[in-house]
Structures are given as C-alpha cells and as structure tokens.
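This follows on from our talk about sequence and fold. I would like you to pick a protein and set down its sequence and fold. Go ahead and set the record down below:
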Amino acid sequence: MKKAYVFLADGFEEIEGLTVVDVLRRAGAEVEMVSLMDRKEITGAHGIKVEADRMIEEAGEADLYVLPGGMPGTLHLKEHAGLCRLLNQAEKKEKHIAAICAAPSVLGELGMLKGKRACCYPSFEEKLNCLEVSYEPVVTDGRITTSRGMGTAVRFSLELVSVLYGKEKADEIAESIVYM
C-alpha cells in the first residue's frame, strides 16, 4: 500500500486538499492529513473545519507529499521550517512531491523546480523558479507534480493516482467517479 501525506495549515483551499485525500483513498492509498498548526483542527480558507490525522512532528516517510494551495495556507506552508526540512529530505530520497494552486511557489522557493516544467495559480509564476512555466492544468516532470487551482483538483488527484499506481488505476477511478 502506498502512503501519502497531505499537509494542512489554516487557510488551505479545502477542495484542493480534500479531493486529493478522497481520490487517493479510493485508489487504495493510505492517506494522512498532517497538521502544520499547533493543533489537529484546521480551518480552511472558506471556514470549513477539518481534523488532521497527525501532527507534522509525527510524520515519517511516505511515497507522496502533497501541498494544497489557498491563502493564507500557502504562506503557512512556506514558513514552516519542519515542513521544508521534510520536503528536502523527501526530494533527496527521490520521493514524489506534489503541489497545487499557489503551493508550487513553495517548491520553487526551495529550489525543487529548477530545470523542470511546472504550473501554478495565475500570478504566482515568478515564484516557480523553474525551467518552463506551463499553463496546462497539471504537469508532472520527474518526481514533481504541479497543478493550477481548485478547478483542476480532480485532474490533479487522478494524476497522483497515476503516479502511484499507474494510468490504468487512474482511469478506473476516473470512470467510477464519472470524471469527464
């Protein structure tokens, strides 16, 4: 079973975070929502409260590390030294890392997008520090997957299923949720 962490901080975009959790669980992944705050209850950008499965201090190794966007959630991600250390370790261990909306800017600021194609929410492109900014809904380059925003959350999530389990499994999930 593949393991994925989805990192949540106050102000995260609920659809971007929770769609990933839902779709990856449908595919059979063990997905844990990880709080970056000093408590497990996280309040999303639109006032939806979510209880994380664990605190970041308890996070170990996973196959996939996911950053949802949203404001000020993305700022909390960028400012969290523990998360930045964990992402750098994951990159060194050649784990898959994914970010959507404004959150790819965090990967850009950590230098993880150098020499890669990436996409993000409009107006964050200059923070990508990448080889080529793409305007496609989802881009996977090597072990990094980026996506543009809330409207691409299902496509992003299905791409992550493909990364972990292959295109056939992603197609199976897409059909089961009537994704067009």
